[in-house]
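Shipment paperwork, digital attachment
Item: protein structure file
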Amino acid sequence: MGRSRWAANLNIDQQKAIVQGRGQGRIHLKLIQQFNVPEQTITNRLKRWKFRGDYIKIRKSTGRPRITDLVTDRNILQSVRRNLRPTATDIAREISTPHKAAPSIRTI
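Attachment content:
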């Protein structure tokens, strides 16, 4: 389900104005007409302000943190391309460095 064609991208100043307008006693209908957005947008902005006290969306976590960085991943791929049948132990030994912790065999 994508965004509707009425989904509003309000900047911070507009979001502040919505909260301040509601604080001054304006009803939803007046705010909808003033900002030309759906009622749900006004409701969502007011809920967010009431719950968190700010206007900015917080990014959600992208999931489990990475064990290896991009350089280590690239080195693993290069090792496998050079030798098509290496074991995980061989790869771990080849990519390990003294100043960096080696990933576990299960990670490779």
